UniProtKB/TrEMBL annotation, chain A:
It comes from Nitratidesulfovibrio oxamicus. Belongs to the complex I subunit 4 family. It is a multi-pass membrane protein. It comes from the Bacteria. It is found in: Endomembrane system; Membrane. This is NADH-quinone oxidoreductase subunit M. Residues 128-412 form the NADH:quinone oxidoreductase/Mrp antiporter transmembrane domain. The lineage of its organism: Bacteria, Pseudomonadati, Thermodesulfobacteriota, Desulfovibrionia, Desulfovibrionales. The chain crosses the membrane at residues 6-25, 37-61, 81-104, 111-129, 135-152, 164-185, 205-224, 236-256, 268-291, 298-317, 329-347, 367-385, 405-425, 446-467.
Length: 519, 475
């Protein structure tokens, strides 16, 4: 449909051009307007991606030689695994600009330049088909994120930013060695080409460990999660949004893009470990979130739990599990991003993130509490919201695979409801109310809260179009994996996902059936 | 004796420059003050000569002097680096007016020695060239006002240098005794295993000590942090960069001898690991910026060995490329240091606090330099490291590569502290003079930062040159 336009390059370079345009500007208000315009143009520039054909594998390919001697290439493409992440990144930027409109008061220009650089690097990560190019974007994104936390963050920003930087960079140094090892063993840096090759188990074993460390820190999985609460709490609102919505997804994206296709045998070998760690993440994240009085910290720990569902879904190697994982990546981006924006809006009113300072808003800020309630429900997976669809798919896969795993994560879902209700109740009806003098949402806040709300309900009520985008890629991924490594077929070879693809309520039913038959 | 001057264009140009400086240093009066006005142009002319001479090839002086791709590549690097070092030193606050011409004279002689070093294909020639470049530095280092620290650094450099030279010469005698030749080409054909000729291995090890001293490889690094700290910022910028290039070119030439698997190659690999680990760990606790950069260069010397021990043309090219990138990154950092310390003081980390407010451009340039030294994309430091790793993987020293990767993780902390102080710490110390905000200062910083980024994004052209040079060595 649009054969000649280098869409992906435009998406990567547009924010860079916008950042350069911001440089000579002096007026803060103009900087904000230009950034918003740039983010909307970026969204519009993504329009040709509508022509994405789910059945066709890698698309919108751009391929150029970069360093001929080592076979480095400037190689971009998207498939079903990355397309949703690209859209998520594009949607997140305007929201970030809008939610920092009054939140950020100092060095506004530099702030927006950092946001734009982040977006560019994030799209680069999700579209790179060359290992080194991927690594370049993967690392390049650290610098603007570091500055976002270190310059515009809260009181503990220096500690949090250094911890974030050291943790993530230290984790990925061995990733570079793994990348080089792939080049030497497979003769190319190109990911699609490497996916065609088979490596020895010993090689896969070490390569998997090196990559998994980098990705597990990024996700973050227990016990590598300690940087996350610090970074989230200290980061400015937009920083938290982009961190939660996009950055964390890079870890799980890495598992799907690299670990499963390139080291299939090792992935299967380590799956019990990964599943175990995921379950611990779900339970531990939920339990710690239950004990928080700082609302932002609570949402940060809930991220650990939610991302646990994603990694769990991936390493079950079931179709519904990977479907659930990918949807959950999108959902978590939308919902947690929105929650962080709301916390930012609340912080602008109360200048505190403590629950005790933000009570009794139900009467005075009904619109605010409506959105908070919606996102809180979506966060713990209430039926009808997007969180439910993703989580239930992972549940189905878990129960198919093993009753124990399924039984273990049920309390995780309950914990999520508990901590979300606990804090939401106090925010809505807690007394004494601190919100008597506050204003309800203004038009700008309505704008940036409405868009995620639409997506929450859309994915919640009619996930079929989204599943349709990702399904063929997941089928290929799993077929490829099964062909190379001895994956235990689910005891229940019930092909429910195909049967009920377009009927969300039926997913619920199939979950129940799966549970029952298993018992 | 064959002496084709056409092959020696860069050397001749440099010698001419040195001669003019010599005359100017002798003539008292206002003429000697003006040295720094024309010298950058002169250095630029030498760089141009080196560019012209890039394709030259041939053997001179009974095959002791070899003009080939490698030597011309390094001569160009030396000439370019000299040009920047001269520009950097034009406004040296701790240098007395009357000594300017002398200062630049010795700087020029040292760079000339390094150029000769790049072409030396015979051990005695190599030794002479090395000494030529070292002796001038012995004079330069104490030239910092009349400070005790400068004198101390000078004495340390001479004593360590003399000891290293003596050891080196002693080793040379063993090599001659064992193999009856000092031509590297002939030596490369001999068997260098311990079993075949222990004398030769001992001799080569001792000879290499002299090179490692120049490169500041552990355990020959003791002078490095002290000298950086004691000498003036501008002198340190030169000492930290170009002599390292000289050491690398010699090691690259000798690498023809160092096949992977030999005892001596493994020993060098171990020294590399120790050097990077030790350098990085020491740098973690430094407060003085130059001292920190000193320990960082010990670590970087370790990184270069990764390419040297791989025993392939790509490995040598990667080492050469990394050495060049290292020079650019360090010149960038020292440029900022010299511009911030306008009164010539030694900067401690807290002096950088709030630099982004006082001078956004210098702070940005320092950030680029620091992230390049870490090896973060999209800077040249990343490409350099990537090439080293790619060239060395699966050539018998994978543990060395993994050590390099782990060391990068250690190094992040102290390089990041440069950025941290410049960007996130509040600016409370008001006793510091305002940084140099002139167009010259900012232009230089931007140009060097741009070079660091461009080399990181399009490394191919230069790296291909380095690979051709490396190929030439392997025939």
């Amino acid at each position: 449909m649009y054969p000649d336009i280098p869409v992906l390059s435009i998406l990567i370079f547009l924010p860079l051009v916008a950042a350069a345009l911001l440089l000579p500007l002096r007026d803060d208000e103009t900087v904000r307007r230009v950034s918003l315009a740039a983010s909307l143009i970026g969204l519009a520039a993504g329009w040709p991606l509508i022509a994405f054909n789910p059945d066709a594998g890698f698309q919108f390919v751009e391929r150029m030689t970069w360093v001929a001697r080592w076979g480095l290439e400037y190689h971009l493409a998207v498939d079903g695994i990355s397309i949703l992440m690209v859209w998520l990144t594009l949607f997140t930027l305007p929201l970030c600009v809008l939610c920092s409109w009054t939140y950020i008061g100092k060095r506004v220009k530099e702030f927006h330049i950092c946001l734009l650089l982040m977006t560019s690097a994030c799209i680069g990560v999700f579209t790179s088909m060359d290992l080194v190019l991927f690594y370049v974007f993967w690392e390049a994104m650290l610098i603007p994120m570091y500055l976002l936390i270190a310059v515009w963050g809260g009181a503990e920003r220096r500690y949090a930013s250094i911890k974030f930087f050291l943790y993530t960079l230290a984790g990925s140094t061995l990733l570079l060695v793994a990348i080089v090892a792939f080049r030497i063993a497979g003769g190319t840096f190109s990911i699609p080409d490497l996916m065609q090759q088979t490596f020895g188990f010993r090689f896969q074993y070490w390569a998997f460990l090196a990559m998994a460390l980098a990705f597990a820190i990024k996700v973050p999985m227990f016990p590598f999660h300690t940087w996350l609460p610090a970074a989230h709490v200290q980061a400015p609102s937009a920083g938290s949004v982009i961190l939660a919505a996009v950055l964390l997804k890079m870890g799980t994206y890495g598992f799907l893009r690299f670990c499963l296709p390139l080291t299939p045998e090792a992935s299967v070998h380590f799956a019990p470990l990964m599943i175990g760690v995921s379950v611990v993440s779900i339970l531990y994240g939920g339990a710690v979130a239950l004990g928080q009085t700082d609302i932002k910290k609570l949402v940060a720990y809930s991220s650990v739990a939610h991302m646990g569902f994603v990694t769990l879904g991936i390493f079950l190697f079931q179709k519904s599990g990977v479907q659930g994982a990918l949807l959950q990546m999108l959902n978590h981006g939308i919902v947690t991003g929105a929650l962080f924006m709301m916390i930012g809006a609340m912080y602008e009113r109360s200048h505190s993130r403590e629950v005790a300072d933000n009570m009794g808003m139900g009467k005075y800020l009904p619109a605010f509490m409506f959105f908070w309630g919606l996102y809180a429900l979506a966060s713990f997976g209430f039926p009808g919201t997007n969180g439910f669809v993703g989580e239930v798919l992972v549940f189905v896969a878990a129960f198919q695979q093993s009753l124990t795993v399924g039984a273990l994560i049920v309390p995780g879902a309950l914990l999520a409801a508990a901590y979300m209700f606990r804090v939401s109740l106090r925010m809505a009806w807690g007394s004494p109310s601190t919100a008597k003098t506050w204003n309800d949402l203004n038009r700008r806040e309505w704008a940036y809260l409405l868009l995620p709300a639409v997506l929450v309900l859309w994915i919640g009520l009619a996930p079929a179009p989204f599943l349709r985008l990702i399904d063929p890629s997941i089928d290929r991924l799993l077929a490829d994996l099964r062909g190379r490594a001895p994956v235990k077929e689910a005891p229940l070879a019930l092909n429910h996902a195909d049967a009920v693809r377009h009927e969300p309520p039926a997913i619920l039913a199939s979950a129940a059936i799966a549970k029952e038959v298993r018992q | 004796m064959n002496l084709d001057l056409a092959l020696l264009v860069p050397e001749c140009a440099m010698l001419l420059l040195v001669a003019v400086l010599f005359v100017q240093a002798l003539s008292a009066g206002p003429a000697s003050v003006a040295a720094h006005r024309w010298l950058p142009l002169g250095a630029l002319a030498v760089t141009a000569a080196a560019v012209v001479a890039l394709p030259a090839e041939g053997m001179l002086l009974w095959d002791a002097y070899k003009v080939d791709g490698l030597s011309q590549f390094f001569k160009l690097c030396v000439a370019g680096g000299f040009c920047i070092a001269v520009l950097n030193a034009t406004r040296q606050p701790t240098l007395e007016e009357g000594k300017r011409a002398d200062y630049f004279l010795f700087l020029g002689v040292s760079a000339w020695g390094l150029m000769l070093l790049a072409s030396s294909a015979e051990l005695v020639t190599l030794y002479l060239a090395l000494e030529l470049s070292s002796y001038s530095l012995y004079v330069l280092i104490p030239l910092r006002g009349r400070t005790r620290e400068g004198a101390e650094a000078g004495v340390k450099y001479i004593l360590f240098g003399a000891a290293a030279t003596a050891i080196s010469l002693y080793g040379l005698s063993y090599i001659m005794a064992a193999h009856q030749t000092t031509y590297i080409a002939a030596l490369a054909a001999r068997d260098w295993s311990w079993a075949a000729s222990p004398t030769a291995v001992v001799g080569l090890s001792l000879f290499l000590c002299g090179m490692f001293y120049k490169l500041a490889l552990f355990p020959f690094h003791f002078w490095c942090p002290d000298v950086y700290q004691g000498s003036s910022n501008e002198t340190a910028a030169y000492v930290a960069t170009l002599p390292k290039l000289g050491a690398v070119v010699v090691l690259v030439r000798l690498a023809a001898v160092l096949h992977p698997g030999l005892e001596i190659t493994t020993a060098i690999a171990w020294l590399g690991v120790l050097s990077m680990t030790f350098g990085n760990l020491c740098a973690l606790v430094q407060k003085d910026v130059k001292r920190m950069l000193g320990f960082s260069s010990v670590a970087h010397a370790g990184y270069v060995t990764v390419g040297l021990v791989s025993g392939t043309a790509e490995g040598l090219a990667a080492a050469a490329f990394y050495a060049l990138v290292y020079v650019v990154m360090n010149l960038l950092c020292f440029w900022v240091v010299a511009r911030v310390a306008v009164d010539g003081r030694n900067l401690v980390l807290s002096d950088l606090n709030g630099l982004h407010r006082r001078s956004p451009v210098l702070a940005f340039a320092l950030g680029v330099g620091a992230f390049a030294l870490v090896g973060l994309p999209p800077t040249a430091g990343f490409m350099g490291k990537l090439f080293l790793i790619t060239a060395a993987w699966n050539h018998g020293y994978n543990w060395l590569v993994i050590a390099l990767a782990l060391n990068s993780a250690i190094a992040i902390y102290y390089y990041l502290s440069l950025v941290r102080h410049a960007y996130t710490e509040p600016d409370e110390n008001t006793s510091l003079p305002a940084p140099d905000q002139s167009a010259f200062s900012l232009g230089g910083a931007v140009a060097l930062a741009a070079a660091t980024l461009v080399l990181g994004i399009v490394p191919s052209p230069l790296f291909e040159k380095a690979v051709q040079a490396g190929m030439a060595l392997f025939g």
